[in-house]
Amino acid sequence: MIELKTPKEVNEMRPAGKFVGDILSKLREMTHPGTNLLEIDDYVRQRIEARPGAVSCYVDYAPDFGTGPFKHYICTSVNDAVLHGMPYDYALRDGDLLSIDLAITVDGWVGDSAISFVVGKKADPEDLRLIQTTRDALVAGIRMARSGNRLGDISAAIGDVAREQGYMVNLEFGGHGLGRIMHGDPFIPNDGRAHHGFRLRPGLVIAIEPWLLRTTDEIVQDENDGWTIRSADGSRGAHTEHTLAITDGDPIILTAREHDETVEALGF
Questions:
Q1: What residues of the chain score a pLDDT lower than 50?
Q2: Distance from CA of residue 184 to its chain's centroid?
Q3: How far is it, in rounded angstroms, from Cα 239 to Cα 232?
Q4: Which of 11, 89, 207, 249 lies 20 to 30 Å from 139 when distance is taken between CA atoms?
Q5: Bind-site residues
Q6: What pLDDT was estimated at residue 137?
Q7: Domains of the chain with CATH codes
Q8: Are 85 and 76 in contact (CB under 8 A)?
Q9: Residue stretches of the annotated binding site for a divalent metal cation
């Protein structure tokens, strides 16, 4: 069921979004060659435990697309991994492409966001182009997230950007509604038909999350951890996400953070 939030409830969601955005900003600053994925996970645990009213959305989460309960506080997807990456004992290397996805409940409301970046200074130009395309696709999707438009307008805008850059789009995982729970209706695929689907209305809160792989749209689930989603051909992936609320005017980016390329591009 698709739920609409009141203006008061949207305002109550701001602390969760800000908290998630702040943590992602800090992780971007502190992550460098040699940083261990378990250090990232432990930092998030400490931040959550120190914040009154904050609860991880991931620990003990057990949906049908994973194998058993998730046991960590953040998703860390490296190189050919793109979604649901389970942190493990791995020290990041110069040139690794890292995607981090974080969802936290604060005082009963969820914030959900993801960023991708290249660790260190040895960046492959194709990795940078892939990351930038997910950002551009997110900007395009958010621009269509206005009252009176339809869900298909968001999906079509994301898919158009991806195809223009030569990427294929997987439709198995995408954006979603959220509020008191992390994953709710509606589902928002990263491609679709404009002018189709649910009509957007003020109070709808959604997470839009373009993710792409360099040379395929086929994915496999890691057999060892039962969670991490990887490209079927070993090519690298990137993932960018924001939580936003539909209003009578510009959408509110609830997970906006400092030095946020997406928000800067939107000019809201």
A1: none
A2: 15
A3: 16
A4: 11
A5: 84, 101, 112, 176, 183, 209, 241
A6: 98
A7: 7-266 (3.90.230.10)
A8: yes
A9: 101, 112, 176, 209, 241
